[in-house]
Write a structure and sequence with these properties.
Blueprint: H1 2-30, H2 33-61, H3 64-90, H4 99-111, H5 124-151, H6 155-176, H7 185-207, H8 219-241, H9 249-257
Length: about 260
């Protein structure tokens, strides 16, 4: 479970940080770097408080069986949502997110406000944009951390995994000063979606009294079931959407269906 916790939270941190990075870069380059960083920091502190407060309340108030059901259902909700989007994009029914276009669109939007500030003032436009993006995108990562920390007692590993993902994306973004448009974002969402959905199934089942013969060792089997099921769905969606041609794995599948517009 330690490896699953580290991997799931790391990948969740990566995929959400990629989208947040796009907004931070747009705000910094088109508005003001200081204000963009302050908004980012304020958003991270907000999420840290949410993890601390909600995590303690959940652990101390809810009985274990109810905790399993509540957290399991939320993991099913978040995981299946990511998984469905990934399946739709691999099947050609939904276009892939284009970080370069999202960056241009956000930069254009932020540039319209002609607020002028002194060296000591905060640009409210840049601050609001990065703060909102950090809290919005990071909320799912925060929930993943709370989930692993409250049920599996893996809070330290969940925090390490998510922090490592965020730091990795931040390092690459600040080094290149451009969106990570070539990152296999949909592939990462697919992997995290499968992992969270399988884990949600395991914990929800335990909460309602399902006896898993292998206990936590049933998790790999659930992963395999969801992988096979999702591959079947991708093939069905491809047929329904009229997508043709060979796609050599996730990376080439993303390249094949990438479009200039973005469907969130």
């Amino acid at each position: 479970m330690v490896i699953s916790t580290l991997l799931a939270t790391f990948l969740a941190g990566v995929v959400e940080s990629i989208e947040t990075l796009t907004v931070v870069l747009a705000a910094g380059l088109s508005r003001n770097w200081k204000s963009a960083y302050f908004g980012l920091l304020a958003g991270i502190l907000t999420l840290a408080l949410v993890i601390l407060i909600v995590g303690k309340v959940v652990i101390n108030v809810l009985p274990l069986h109810l905790l399993n059901v509540v957290i399991g259902l939320f993991l099913l909700l978040f995981g299946s949502r990511w998984l469905v989007k990934a399946v739709q994009r691999y099947g050609g029914a939904k276009t892939l997110r284009d970080e370069s276009e999202a960056f241009e669109r956000m930069s254009s939007k932020l540039s319209r406000d002609e607020q002028r500030i002194t060296a000591w003032e905060i640009d409210r436009v840049a601050f609001s944009a990065t703060y909102g993006a950090t809290v919005l995108e990071g909320s799912e990562v925060a929930f993943a951390v709370i989930s692993f920390g409250s049920i599996a007692h893996m809070m330290p590993y969940a925090l390490i995994g998510s922090a490592a993902g965020i730091v990795a994306v931040a390092f690459l973004g600040m080094m290149f000063r451009r969106p990570l448009a070539s990152a296999p974002e949909n592939g990462i969402k697919y992997v995290v979606g499968v992992m969270l959905t399988a884990l949600g199934t395991l914990w929800t089942g335990e909460g309602v009294g399902v006896h898993w013969v292998l206990g936590d060792a049933s998790y790999p089997g659930l992963l395999a079931v969801y992988v096979l099921f999702s591959i079947a769905l991708i093939l069905i969606v491809k047929g329904l959407s009229g997508t043709r041609g060979r796609t050599g794995g996730f990376a080439s599948a993303e390249a094949a269906v990438r479009r200039p517009q973005e469907n969130l």
